[in-house]
Automatic annotation (TrEMBL), chain A:
Name of this protein: GntR family transcriptional regulator
Key words, A-Z: DNA-binding, Transcription, Transcription regulation
Any GO molecular function: DNA-binding transcription factor activity
Origin superkingdom: Bacteria
Residue ranges annotated for the HTH gntR-type domain, each copy included: 27-97
Species: Aeromicrobium endophyticum
SUPFAM superfamilies linked: GntR ligand-binding domain-like, Winged helix' DNA-binding domain
Taxon lineage: Bacteria, Bacillati, Actinomycetota, Actinomycetes, Propionibacteriales
Length: 256, 246
């Protein structure tokens, strides 16, 4: 197998990728690597045609041996999730999400206890509310334009994957509008950690619509420099999704 | 900084501070203008159609960008972007960054279907020079899906390209935001209490702890400006603060 050496090319330089390809606690297992990449592709965090870093770089990043990584990529190729092109300009490329996306998502959330869900929501609320409050104080006109664009994307999302992506990008943009590096980094980590729950929750059209409406209100509050309204609206978004997610979990993650 | 003039006239002193602020990025803009000239000679229309510069042109831009990152103070990244359409997915971006002391290629994701989509055609560092034709400095902002960190960007339109034509191209550098704000703070101190304000009324830096970087000054009830001086070429203002502020 040929790999394109990308020493000197920083394919890990977005924080999303550094989070996705973070070293495994449970290192040494091809299955764990394949699972991480399968989830990222299934959730659409890695899009079709995105190029993965070289095998050498990825193995080093995951803290696994190149042989283990190759085993993981072989499994993903067998699933049809990635393809490997040889020669110059080649490398491993994402080919598209799995047809049985729901099964992969259910695998991800099946181990979540109600305490896990509550903790995720608590952390998301802390980050999002403070980001919203600071954004109302500090957002530039550009930030507000990007938030308007983001809430428009949420309104036009017609499936779980695009609604999840619109939500993630909106909250990352909101954290950026707060001008805080650390809130921004926390928001990007949340995007990856909370994605399975968000995607399952957004399978329901009513949830997509309710959140999109709230994001529109939130954008207006930031634009109006209304710190209190921005914080309260951000909390409402987080609580609405958390409440629907808790109901879903209680129902075995099946929509009523 | 050579801005420490000791004239008794507050207004003159503020003018000198404003000049010193402009001086901080003068070498950066001089380099960007030279880079813009070089890029204007490349076949940008073909590059946009292909999604990247051809190997020869990419090597030309790379050597200039790498040299820029290596030799200019404060600079942490450099490159060019061009688009022929409404969004960055119709465009091309070549960028180099400083990482662990070495200059490496940085790939931006120009695929709108990706979570990490970097839509430069909707970002001010691209749109402002493109629409106004003037050199642009963007006050500290979080460059999501780019540096993912607080960044100051200086950008210059490539001559012969503008939004009325088929291809709009911009050359730009990222500055280390923390170092830049520190340098501004050092300059402002001689006029304290003072604040540097960007083109839309947000604080870039101030000598006062209650006025943090990024805050919209309109959001501060106790703030009031005294004398002001324009920072030439940036559309920014240095303002002395009323003694009652804070």
């Amino acid at each position: 197998m040929t790999t394109r050496p990308d020493e000197g090319i920083d394919l890990l330089s977005t924080l999303t990728r550094r989070v996705l390809f973070a070293p495994l606690a449970d290192h040494g297992r091809a299955g764990a690597v394949a699972e991480r990449l399968r989830t990222a592709i299934t959730l659409g965090i890695l899009a079709e045609n995105e190029q993965l870093p070289s095998e050498t770089t990825l193995a080093a990043q995951f803290n696994i041996s190149p042989v283990t990584l190759r085993d993981a990529l072989t499994a993903l190729r067998a699933d049809g999730l990635v393809t490997t092109r040889r020669g110059r300009g080649g490398g491993t490329v994402v080919s598209g999400p799995l047809p049985d996306q729901r099964r992969v998502l259910l695998d991800q959330v099946s181990g979540l206890s109600s305490i896990d869900l509550r903790d995720q929501a608590d952390w998301r609320r802390a980050v999002s509310v403070e980001a919203a409050r600071l954004a109302a104080r500090r957002a530039s006109r550009e930030d507000i334009g990007l938030l308007e664009r983001g809430s428009a994307n949420a309104r036009s999302a017609t499936d779980a994957v695009s609604a999840r992506r619109a939500d993630s990008r909106y909250f990352i943009q909101l954290a950026a509008a707060s001008q805080s590096s650390q809130l921004s980094a926390a928001s990007i980590r949340l995007q990856v950690e909370y994605a399975p729950v968000l995607t399952l929750t957004y399978a329901e059209a009513r949830t997509r619509e309710d959140v999109a409406a709230l994001l529109t209100t939130l954008t207006t509050a930031v634009q109006d420099a209304d710190v209190e309204a921005a914080g309260l609206t951000a909390a409402r978004v987080v609580d609405l999704v958390a409440s629907r997610a808790a109901s879903l979990r209680a129902n075995g993650w099946k929509h009523a | 900084m050579e801005a420490r003039m000791t004239t008794p006239n507050q207004h003159d002193s503020l003018e000198a501070v404003a000049r010193a602020v402009a001086d901080l990025t003068q070498p950066v803009f001089a380099r960007l203008e030279a880079l813009a000239q070089e890029v204007s000679a490349l076949d940008l229309r073909q590059a946009v159609g292909r999604g990247r510069l051809d190997d020869h042109d990419a090597a030309v831009v790379e050597s200039l960008a790498v040299q820029t990152v290596q030799t200019l103070d404060l600079v942490s990244g450099a490159g060019m972007a061009a688009t022929a359409g409404e969004t960055s997915s119709d465009g091309v971006m070549h960028w180099w960054i400083l990482r662990d002391g070495a200059v490496v290629t940085k790939r931006h994701v120009l695929n709108p279907a990706s979570d990490s989509y970097y839509d430069f055609s909707n970002l001010r560092w691209f749109t402002l020079p493109a629409s106004s034709g003037t050199n642009t400095l963007i006050a500290p902002y979080i460059d999501s899906w780019g540096t993912d960190d607080l960044t100051v960007t200086a950008a210059v339109l490539v001559p012969g390209s503008d939004s009325a034509r088929e291809v709009t191209a911009v050359v730009a550098v990222d500055l280390n935001a923390r170092a830049y704000v520190q340098a501004v703070e050092d300059v402002l101190r001689s006029a304290a209490p003072a604040v540097l304000i960007d083109g839309e009324g947000r604080a870039v830096c101030s000598t006062e702890p209650d006025i943090e970087t990024g805050v919209r000054l309109a959001a501060l009830p106790s703030w009031s400006a005294g004398e002001t001086a324009d920072v030439l070429g940036l559309g920014w203002t240095v303002a002395s603060l009323d003694a009652t502020t804070g």
